[in-house]
Amino acid sequence: xxxxxxxxxxxxxxxxxxxxxxxxADRIELVSALxxxxxxxxxxxxxxxxxxxxxxxxVMIRPHSRSFRYSKEDLEVMARDIRAAEKLGVxxxxxxxxxxxxxxxxxxxxxxxxxxxxxxxTFHRAFDEARDLEEAFNTLLNxxxxxxxxxxxxCSTAVEGMSMLARLxxxxxxxxxxxxxxxxxxxxxxxxxxxxxxxxxxxxxxxVRLEQRLDGPIVSEAIRRxxxxxx
Length: 231
Known about the structure:
Elements: E1 6-11, H1 14-20, E2 27-30, H2 43-52, E3 57-60, H3 72-88, E4 92-95, H4 106-113, E5 120-123, H5 133-140, E6 146-151, H6 162-171, E7 178-182, H7 190-197, E8 201-204, H8 220-229
Parallel strand pairs: 1-2, 1-8, 2-3, 3-4, 4-5, 5-6, 6-7, 7-8
Helix pairs in contact: 2-3, 3-4
């Protein structure tokens, strides 16, 4: 791949957005409840974030943290959130759905993507709970709206999942899907990780927050150092 390496950073507040504007980040994932893995932010939060951000924003569409399986009513809520987020001017949404037997839920995914008009879509780390990651990747190729898969290679951290991430990155060659590696990446390990996997997009959260606390403020200098490692 010859594409520019890109850095996506999680934001949970308008203060985060303002810090990210001039930090060197390439894209924002806007979430609430980061301690629960990220849930859908409020309409007011999305609206204000779009107003003040100089970066493209992808919004988490996840109504609860109990599982990646959703009821009919859950899916109705998610569909409404997608419509609202698109109307507010976000660049994309982040979602993921699995069946009881840990396969991509193609029926639910089709329903949700049917609400997408011009948004880009990231399939989030529900992917890491799929029973077979390469099978899941092949399934997601059937959905043209999906252009990113956020994954740690099926492991707790991306460093632990390097072997699978390298395979997925290679599998993505010649397709529209890009592998977005996340979980456990920071300025100390990211250069070696990129060299080992060939991955060209990374996603960070606590790594760029004060003392790497989930509730810590974003430290712009930490983002700049990670971005430098991507050059």
